[in-house]
Amino acid sequence: MDWESFYDTHPSPSNYESIITAVENFVCSHENEKMVLITSGGTTVPIEQNTVRFVDNFSLGTRGSASAEYFLDAGYVVIFLYRSNSLEPFVRHFNNSLLDKLEIVDDKSIQVKQSEFDTLYPILKKYKDAKNANRILTVPFTTLIEYMWLLRGSCMLMDTKYSLLYLAAAVSDFYIPPSEMAEHKVQSNDGPPMIALRLVPKVLYAVTHIWAPNAYIISFKLETDYGILEQKSKGALIKYKHQLVIGNLLHTRKRNVKLIGQDGVIEDILLTDEDIKNGIEIEDLIVSNVKAKHDQFFKSQK
């Protein structure tokens, strides 16, 4: 199935219009400002219409949520299109430990432990500044179909040289059309289910040529085999004609990535043991590099 047929045969989510209206209002309020759309987290593929079970992609949303913070630091306005319950900017620092940083005072109030103030304050300050200045919009999705619709709608609103599309979500390559799903929970006493997965259409061509051809577009390539990483990254650039692929391997992605551009130049970003010891995140280095590339692209456009 091609991408046009996908949208023709899969209705938009029930809340699509209200979400896209919010995105449109946000984009319009930041006209002629550098803006980044970050996609983050994995997509679910339900196997029942009344969903109990689903196929999921491996992704906590680490890359996207961390990058959002560094893009804000770099002066960008951020639209964060993320999987519900995956990591979010700022909140990611306290995902499993926030309650340990608080204490009850005289059974009447709650406050941050003094020992945790220096950790919590700068993160909370950045979060409040971004929200109060309306510089970040978070847009959740859960299923693959929700993601596909929200991606298309958002990209079509960001077709300018000011826009950067940072497509870091782990999107499923396979799915089950709703028309082929069981209506109710698949019962185990019926024996092993026979499930036929369909290929998800590649929409990157539509992103680069139809929805947002004037934006600076970055895709991500995650592999487990080093031998094919560069080849597949270069192949994507040739096929889709976007500006940059960020390639990484599953087991080293937190300390080493490759930036592969249309000119064939490959840049390695590598965190040293000293960097890690000092709390430097690789997303900080990625965003700094990407910002410089977007700046050059911006100046080259009429």
From TrEMBL:
Chain ranges of the DNA/pantothenate metabolism flavoprotein C-terminal domain: 163-254
Example GO BP: coenzyme A biosynthetic process
Transmembrane annotation, as ranges: none
InterPro entries: CoaB-like_sf, DNA/pantothenate-metab_flavo_C
One Pfam entry name: DFP
Molecular function in Gene Ontology: catalytic activity
Stated family: Belongs to the PPC synthetase family.
Protein's name in the database: Cornichon-like isoform X1
UniProt source species: Aphis craccivora (Cowpea aphid)
